[in-house]
Write a structure and sequence with these properties.
A 4-stranded antiparallel β-sheet has the order 4-5-9-8, with no helix packed on it. It has a 4-stranded antiparallel β-sheet with strand order 13-12-15-16, with no helix packed on it. By secondary structure, the protein is mainly β. The protein is globular and about 90 Å long. The protein has one helix spanning 2-28; strands spanning 32-33, 36-42, 57-59, 66-74, 89-96, 102-103, 109-113, 118-125, 130-136, 150-153, 156-159, 167-174, 177-184, 188-190, 199-208, 225-227, 264-268, 271-275, 285-289, 292-296, 305-309, 312-316, 330-334, 337-341, 355-359, 362-366, 377-378, 384-385. The protein is built from 1 helix and 28 strands. The chain is 7% helix and 37% strand.
Length: 392
């Protein structure tokens, strides 16, 4: 009988130990996964070519279950100064505050905001205690140099290269009249097909950058090239060369006779695309063209209407009025509903505003979810917004 009790006691102890050992890994695996991480970039001003690399800051919500363990810094830069076309990368490391309860996993979603930033990569370290995030900004832009030299090479306009220019805009004149404006990726252009009348022809040229939409200063006018009545071009001149043509959403064409696929805007049955000087189509990116910002989606087609990008809502003109696809700023009236889109170039230009906003010395309240202006109603602080949305 005593032997049987001992056996039962031993069995119970072994069973309890086995149960405990089975619970331990389950307990370890029961840590809460941090589902998402929100980061805000603050680099003061967007990097420009020639600027010192300097410092950068990444901020997190005060209520976050994680903290910054390795301060943000620019990672893997080419030099001490920014170079045009270089894509700045910011590296920051985060650590969970209570590793006994929480952890990062590969499914943790990371979002970043401000200064047109986006997540380049993320990596979970230290069994989930640390998360390394690499953030990329837009390619570095800056002021373009002026063309140093320009001359006529027979009937070809020719000019010296600008290192950072992706293409060139060239204007042809007969006397004081602008005959044609063309864009080319080459540093020479055959203007003879535009010389349909006798007279003295001149040209001027400037560099353009696709990465940031920068336009250089115009060169001076070239020397005269004279075409006599007997030497004028007698064929049909190109029809898409003038700066007021209809070759793009904003009303400017992009002809090229350089022998390579034409850069700039192109339209097919599905919409508008934009090709860079290297032949690649712009995808999932902003591009600055003709003094306006446009956004091209993953399929390379220009987007319109409301879009959610860079953790903000933007409104792109859906109307074919000469600026289709262009990013709107300032006040926006859509069927009597008003919105306000940030007009300031602070890294969030064009972003839809919400909450209380002081605009031209007056306070307004914009719905926290939709961004719509509250009018003829009481705002959250108990004050009244009148028919124009002004809080009294």
């Amino acid at each position: 009988m005593r032997h049987s009790i001992k056996q039962h006691t031993l069995a119970a102890v072994l069973s309890a130990a086995a149960a405990l050992s089975m619970c331990m890994p389950a307990y370890a695996a029961s840590k809460d996964t941090i589902p998402s991480v929100k980061l805000e970039v603050d680099c003061g001003e967007e990097p420009e070519a020639g600027d010192s690399v300097g410092s950068v800051e990444v901020k997190i919500p005060a209520s976050a279950k994680y903290e910054i363990s390795e301060e943000a810094e620019y990672y893997d830069t080419n030099d001490d100064e920014w170079e045009r076309g270089e894509v700045p990368v910011i590296r920051v490391e985060l650590r969970v505050k209570d590793f006994e309860k929480d952890r990062f996993t590969s499914s943790t979603k990371v979002t970043v905001s401000r200064f047109h930033s986006s997540v380049k990569s993320k990596k979970v370290l230290d069994n989930g205690e640390t998360l390394r995030v690499d953030i990329k900004l837009r390619a570095v832009g800056g002021e373009l140099e002026e063309v140093d030299d320009y001359w006529w090479d027979g009937r070809y306009a020719a000019w010296s290269d600008i290192d950072d220019a992706d293409k060139y805009e060239v204007k042809l004149y007969r006397g004081s009249n602008n005959v044609a404006t063309v864009t080319t990726t080459s540093n020479r252009y055959n203007f003879y097909p535009y010389m349909t009348r006798s007279g003295n022809y001149t040209f001027k040229v400037r560099g353009l950058s696709n990465s940031d939409g920068e336009k250089g200063s115009w060169s001076g006018e070239s020397d005269d090239y004279y075409i006599s009545e007997g030497d004028v071009y007698t064929g049909t001149p190109p029809s898409d060369s003038t700066s007021t043509g209809s070759g793009s959403p904003s009303g400017s064409g992009s002809p090229s006779n350089s022998g390579s696929p034409a850069s700039g805007w192109a339209q097919d049955q599905n919409g508008w695309t934009y090709r860079l000087g290297d032949g690649n189509l712009v995808r999932n990116a902003w591009i600055f063209v003709d003094d306006n910002w446009f956004y091209l989606g993953g399929d390379a087609y220009m987007l319109t209407d409301w879009i959610f990008v860079d953790n903000n809502w933007f409104y792109l003109n859906p109307v074919s009025d000469g600026t289709k696809g262009a990013m709107k700023t300032g006040w926006l009236n859509l069927g009597g509903t008003y919105y306000y889109l940030n007009p300031i170039s602070d890294g969030t230009r064009g972003a839809r505003k919400t909450g209380y906003q002081n605009i031209d010395g007056k306070w307004y309240f914009f719905d926290l979810n939709t961004g719509a202006l509250w009018m003829n109603r009481t705002v959250p602080n108990g004050k009244w917004a009148d028919a124009n949305g002004v809080i009294n």
